[in-house]
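User: GMC oxidoreductase-like protein, Schizothecium vesticola:
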Amino acid sequence: MSLVRVVFLSLAILAGATGQYGYTERQTLQLRSSYDFVIVGAGTSGLTIADRLSQALPSKTVLVVEYGKIEYCPGPFDPPTNWLEPADSASRWVFNSLPSPEMKNKTAFVTVGQVVGGSSCINGMFFDRGSRFDYDAWTDAGGPEFARSDVKWNWKGLFPYFKKSVKFTKPSHSAAQKYGYTWDESAYGGSTDISSSYPPFQWADQPVLRDGWKEMGIKPVKECAGGDKEGICWVPTSQNPVTGRRSHAGIGHYANVLPRANYDLLVNHQAIRVVYPKGPQSGPPVLEVLARADGTIFNITAQAEVIISAGALHTPTILQRSGIGPASFLLTANIPLVLNLPGVGSNLQDHSGPPVNFNYTDFPSSLFPVPSSMLNATFKADAIAGFNETPARGPYTLSLGNSAIYVSLPHMSPKYATIISKIRKAVSSGIAASYLPSEYQSIPAMVSGYNAQLLTLADLLSNPEAPNLESPWATSNISPATTVWSFLLHPLSRGTVRLNLTSPLAQPLLDYRMGSNPIDFDLHTTGVRFLRTLLDTPAMKKYGATEVSPGAAVAGNETALVEYVKDQIILSFQHPCCTAPMLPKDRGGVVGTDLKVHGAKGLRVADMSVSPLLVGSHLSATAYAVGEKAADIIIGQWKGH
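Assistant: Predicted structure for GMC oxidoreductase-like protein:
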């Protein structure tokens, strides 16, 4: 089908290792009449796939359709911010979820990238991977069908793609000596232009908490990207090791890729839906898009495949507009049913958690610099100058930090077995289904899939080497109180992403349903109690650490502590996933191990929506690995065609 004449817009994007900004302009005055591969979403996974396909299959044409534009993507604390407040960001979508009744009707505040580069353009640049057990759990949740599959998404099957997806630069000898950085280069090895590195700066009080964690018995891990993660971790940053600037997919998989005759990018266009004129087995489908500049709607024809890589919040929306999703919801939305896949938009998961707050009453002024030093005009001016040097130096190279603890449930509480027993009993008694959204409680596939997930999580949580709590930090000296956060890495509650029925092209409605599985409260309170023991360590007592909340009285009463969790919890640490899960259809799955949508010819999904279970890490590194593995699967199918 021929296309309207459009102009492809390409704007400024950062470039070289010298720290200067370059501009790349790639214009096409007219789209081709058709493409072999059409990728929806120029995000972390989508651009990875586009780069790899256009390189490996030079005779095939690749088009990426992106809602946003090309922008410069600053780090979270780039100048001129004072580091105590976030910097301006590249464009992003901002969501406020529906209220979660079990959390006193709190809403989740969620942002995702609306820019070429996707969420790799706006995240905190914390570049960690999950433990090997997180990814092994993906296969376990898929049951015998996935265990028999030739395509493995366990740790062994993903680790080569983690290595391929990033170029690691070890820190300088002086920085390693000064801060105690540790690493193992065998966990890396790629030459991809996505950078992973350690900054040449840490706040002077960063070791205070590290000492406290050690005194709690948490052991340092030399390298946490190699699959073994339980302990104290140094975590690299997704940044250029010379300039200190953000490294993201818009650079590594587009701007720094030499122009290819078969690789096009169409920005400022919204993918509305995929259309199967003759039914879902007649694919590949046609992609219907909206030009945001003038409201024109037109079709793009794919000869080989359409690959949806719009992220965990937008991929299910596109599928639902296409008539692919839960039949009951599509009926309500007055959308003709193409494929009844109730898992589309189900299974929403994210990291959440409450804080433990304390003050230092005897913090030495000799520890310099700390974040409050940025309030000194002379110090801040030098910090800005340092960020613009080559190589960059100083506080602005730090981003959100490089340190975190990752602790398993057995190492948090000797009563962990009671929680595991609760999970297993909820499945065996049949009560687990009542924790699902009401529309899923009578669908056998959704109940079966959720039960399988819970049993997989019970095994995972009982493993002393599999972390279930994260607490990241960069400093101890942020006024008025210091906070250590308890990130619940493997929640049991499940939410939904649904098309907005009053405005189908607007942003979807998120229902996080946090706390809908009450066992999550056992996990939250266990994490809070564990973190409170930090204040009993000699390192904390040395500086007069005094607890602000929750306090001994609250922590000693389970009912009161649950109320504290409800009052203080952050419902989203910006890691939504799992809304088009890679599971068998009879377990509520949307895609198989080949990432093909069940029953839809010529249609795949490849982004963090395919993760069946939330991993115990920030999601950027996993999203790159998913893109790399997806590209390999697709190339393997089409090589020689």
